[in-house]
From TrEMBL, chain A:
Name the UniProt record assigns to this protein: Peptide/nickel transport system permease protein
Record-annotated ABC transmembrane type-1 domain positions: 101-298
Transmembrane region(s): 12-33, 106-128, 140-163, 175-198, 233-254, 284-305
Native organism taxonomy: Bacteria, Bacillati, Actinomycetota, Actinomycetes, Micrococcales
InterPro entries: BPD_transp_1_N, MetI-like, MetI-like_sf
Membrane topology annotation: Multi-pass membrane protein
GTP-binding among keywords: no
Compartmental location: Cell membrane
Primary residence: membrane
Automatic annotation (TrEMBL), chain B:
Keywords from the named record: Signal, Transport
PROSITE patterns reported for this sequence: TAT
InterPro entries given in the database record: Peptide/Ni-bd (IPR030678), SBP_5 (IPR039424), SBP_5_dom (IPR000914), TAT_signal (IPR006311)
Name of protein: Peptide/nickel transport system substrate-binding protein
Sequence similarity: Belongs to the bacterial solute-binding protein 5 family.
Domain Solute-binding protein family: 83-436
SUPFAM superfamilies the UniProt entry points to: Periplasmic binding protein-like II (SSF53850)
Amino acid sequence: MSPSRRRLLRTAGVRLLSSLGVLWAAVTIVFVLSRASGDPVALLLPEDADATQIAQMQATLGLDRPLIIQYLDYLGGLLRLDLGESLLYKEPVTSLILERLPATGLLALSALLITVVAAFLAGSVAALRRGSAVDRLVMGAVLVGQSTPAFWVGILLVLLFGVQLQVLPAAGYGTLAHLVLPAVTLAIFSVAVVARLLRSSLVEVMGQDHVRTARAKGAGELRVLLGHGLRNASLPVITVLGLELGALLGGAILTEQIFNWPGIGRLTIDAISFRDFPLVQGTVVLFAVTFVVVNLLVDLSYAVIDPRVRSEA
Amino acid sequence: MTPPHIPTRREALRLGVYGSALGAVGLTAGCGSEADATGARALRIAQKSEPTGLDPHLESGLDGMNVLINIFDMLTERDAEGELVPRLASGWEAIDEHRWRFRLREDVVFHNGEVFDARSVKFSIERLIDPETASTIVELRAVDHVEIIDDHTVDLVMADPDPVIPEKVSLFGGAMLPPRHFAEVGAERFAAQPVGTGPFRFVSWRKAQLLRLEANEEHWNGRPAFDELHFTAMPNPASALAGIQSDVIDMVSALDPEAALQLEGYKDVELAKYPGIRMYFVVLDTQHEILRDVRVRRALNHAVDVPLLIEAVLNDSGREAATIVPQEAFGHDPDVPAFARDPGEARQLLAEAGHADGFTLRFTSSNEDQLVCEALAGMLGEIGVQLDLELLEPGTFAERLSAEDPSSLGSMYLTGSTGWTLDGGATLQSYVRSDRKRSRIRSERADAMMDTIEQSIDPDVRLEALHEMQQWLHEEAPFLFLYQADLDFATNGEIQWEPNVNGTLAMETAR
C-alpha cells in the first residue's frame, strides 16, 4: 500500500471515529435535555388522573428507573439499531421514522435540486455580467430571498397559487403538483446562499490565468464557463451545499407544518410537544446521522474533485 | 495545470436517489387513489391532530376520540339536547352503591359479523381497567369487575361508589370491542384494523395524511348519509383555510377563537359557533398571605369585566360563567349570580382589607391563553393589582398542574377544564377538595360537600350538594369566574350537522 493511500485511510478512520463521537454527544445532550424538560406522563394522562395512575403509568413506561439506567438502556438499544418505542404512538420509533422519511427525503432532495439548478443559473449569469443591471437585479432578488423567512414565503405562495389562482394544491401529499410549493419554499433560502457564493467564487476564478489562457486559445465563453470556471468554482459551493442539505432538513420542520406535508418535521413537532422522549431522540439521531454523513461525503468529494486536496491527504 | 475531471458519480447518485424517491411517491399516490373517482360522497374533516392510534382503550385525546366514536359505539350517548340516552345499552340503573346494571340492545353486530352481547361488555371494560393494558383512560377507576347476568344484561361491580358511571360510558371508556375477533388478531393488529359496531367502518389510514372510514350499511341505527368520512390533521389554521377554499376540506373542527377570526369574511367559508362546555377560570391560592382574605378575592372578581373579555379577546366565542360548573352539566345552579362588574366596589373592598395602595401577584398560565391573561392583567391593573405574568409552554404548564408542589403555579393560575361527562362533579373534583393537587382550597365544609357529590348515588342528594357547593363558591370566591368557551367550526356551507354540547365529531347525523 502506498504511503499516500495509507494516509488517506487513516484520515478516513479518524474522521469516522470522530463522527461516532459527534453522534454520541448529540444523543447524550438530547437525552439529558429532554429529561430536564419534564415528565411526559402529565401530558399523556387526562387532568383528573390520580397519583396511583400516574405512578403506574411511569412504571409501565420505565420512567421510574434511575436516569443512568434509562440512559445505558437507550445506548444499548442504539447499538442494536433499536430506537425504543414511542410513548405517544406506542409503536417502534424506527418504524414511525421510516414511515415518514420518504416524504421528507423527497422534499429535501427536490429543494436541493432546485437549489443546484437555480443557484448555478443565477450565480453564473450574475458573475458573467458582473456590474451590469442583470447582476444587480439577480443579486437584489437573491438578497430578498435570503432575508425572507421561509414560513412567510410559504404562506404567500399558498395564498397566490393555492387560493387565488387555484393552480397548485395548497396542502397535502401524493402527486408532483403537491410537491411544487413546499419544495420551492424550502429551496428559496438555499438558492440565495449558494447563488451568492457561486457568483463571488466564479468572479475570482474567471480572473485567473488558466481561464485567460483558455480564452486566448479561442475557447467560447460558454465553454470557458463550463469547462474552467464552474469546475473550479464549485469546490466551496459543494461544502455549502452539504451544509444546506442539513439546513433543508431543519427547514423542512417549518415547511411541513405550513403545507401539511407528512414528513419527519411534523413528527418531530408532535414528539416535542408531547415529550415523547424516544421519538425526539430518534429524530435527533436521524438528523445527526444525516449531518455527519453529508459532512463526510463533502470531505471525500474534495479529494475526488480537486487533485490538490488528494495529494495533500 | 490540467483542470480536474468532473466526476459524474455524485450527480448520478443524487439523481438516482431523487428518481427512486419520486418513484415512491408515484407509487403511494397510485395505491391511494382517493375515492373521488368512485363517485362516493365523502365528508372531509380537518382537525388539529390525528389519533395516536386506533385502539380505543389507549386513546385519551379528543381528536382521537372524534375518529373512534364513528367506528365504535359506546354504551350510552349524549343526544342533541345534551340528555344522556341509550346507545348500545338500552337501559341502566344502580342496584346499590356497588353495582350498576346495564341492559343491552339485542340487534347489534360488529363490522366483522360477530354478535355484540354481555361478553363484549365484560371483555371491553375489564381490558380497559387491567393495568396490563396501560390505558390512559382514567374514568373507570372505581370499577372492580364486570358480572354477566344473562346474554344481554351485565353488572359493573364497583370497588368504590361512583354515581356517574352511565355518563362515563358515553365516551372514553364506553367503547365496545369484539372479544372473539380481538383474541384472534391480538392488540396490535386490532389497532391497525379496528372493528367496532359503529356507523362507519375503518378503511385505511396513511399516517399524517388521510384516515378513511366508510358507511356501515348494517348499522342498527340506520345507514349514515355520507358514504365516507375522511379525517386529515391540519395543525395550522392557515392550511385549513386554504383547504376549504381550494375544496380539499369540507369542515374544520375545534378552531380556537383567533383561528376562527382569521377565517372570517372569506367567500366560501362559513363559520359556526355552538355552545360548548369547556370552563375557564382562575384558581386563587386561598393560603396566600393576601389572597386568604375573602374581601380581596371578591374584589378581584368585581374588577374583571368578563363580557368585555369575551367580546374583545374571544371574538364573542363564549358565555359568561358565574360558577365553574357548565350550564349544561347536571347540578348547575342557575341562581348563582355573576359578580357585578364594579371597579369602585373592588377598590373599596381592597381598601377595607388594607391594600389601598395595591399589590403584586404572581400569575401562571399556558402561553396558549396569553391574550386572556394580558386582558386580565389590564383589568386588575385598574384597581391597583399588578400581575407578574408567567406564560409557560403548554407541556410545562400541564406538568406543573399535576406537580406535588403547589407554589410552582404562583399565587393564581388560569385553567381550562372540560368535564365531558356533563356531571357537575367533573370540574369541581380536581379544584375543590383539599387533597387534590390542583386545589387551593382548604375547607372541611367543602370537603364534606365534595364527598357527597362524588360518592352518593342518590341524584336528589347530589343535586342539593352541588347547588350548595356553587353558592358556597360564590360566597368564598376562591376562583375568578370567567367563561364557558364556544365550539367554533368552519365549513364550506354545504354540510348540515350540529355538534352536541360535548363537541365530539359523531358524524352519523351529518347530511
